[in-house]
Design goal:
- By secondary structure, this protein is mainly alpha-helical.
- It contains three helices and no strands.
- It has one domain (2-75).
- Helices cover 73% and strands 0% of the residues.
- Bound molecules: zinc ion.
- The site of zinc ion has 8 residues, from loops.
């Protein structure tokens, strides 16, 4: 199915982007930890935001990897609850959806 191939390419691109973003955040966080105490107090608020973004990226990376595994083993696009094939439109809008519109 060519649509699945296109989705796979998009997922792989997104995965690369997220991986590099997560790494940047990680570097920022460890840099902040090296600052002296007074600077840390000012920066901690920014760190919380960074950490949130980092957690979101990690979560997305996990979902994308799962979707890629499913593409490989041929179970991609099948609702994990009712086993119905998820529409291509839905997958294109939400590439790592694991459930059909009715089960989500
Ligand atoms: Zn379903």
């Amino acid at each position: 199915m060519s649509e699945i191939n296109e989705i796979k390419i998009k997922l792989e691109e997104k995965l690369l982007e997220l991986t590099s973003r997560a790494k940047t955040i990680d570097d920022d966080l460890s840099e902040a930890a090296d600052d002296d105490w007074s600077e840390n107090a000012v920066e901690s608020e920014g760190d919380e935001v960074l950490e949130k973004i980092g957690n979101m990226a990690v979560d997305e990376i996990r979902k994308i990897k799962l979707a890629l595994i499913k593409i490989e083993d041929g179970t991609y696009g099948i609702c994990e609850r009712c086993k119905v094939r998820v529409s291509v439109e839905r997958l294109e809008a939400l590439p790592y959806a694991t459930r059909c519109i009715n089960c989500s």
